[in-house]
Each structure stands twice: as C-alpha cells, then as structure tokens.
Amino acid sequence: VSQPALSSTMSDLEEELQGQFFRIHKGYLVNLACIDEYNKTEVTLVNGDKLLISKYKYPDFVKAYLRYMQ
User: Fold this and answer.
1) ∠ CA 21-36-40 to the nearest 5 degrees?
2) What is the pTM of this model?
C-alpha cells in the first residue's frame, strides 16, 4: 500500500496548522489536542507515544500549549 505524496515542507505545514499544531522538534509537528502530558524533554501523546522536545522549542511550546488549552 503506497502512502500519498506530501508536497509541503514542514515549515509550510507548521505555518498552515498554527494554533492547533506545534513543531516540538525539527521532525515533529504535534497536534496539541493529542498531548496527554509533557516535561522539559518529551511529550507523551494520548496513544502513549513519546516524542522528544527540542530544548530550544520548549519555552515556546509551553506558551502555545497553554494558549491552546484556554
């Protein structure tokens, strides 16, 4: 089974999905609605997956997540 081709860059997707998604690492764009918990080094999704958070992205992630939760 082939996967559909994605012609957008991560930066394009990040901009288009701003507010609902956040780029926590250069390879991860996370749906804020799917976050179960987080700490300074990782995000745990509601399905149990754990993803690393870039230390450089963490402060902005916290702001974006708290804004989303309001």
Assistant:
1) 80
2) 0.81
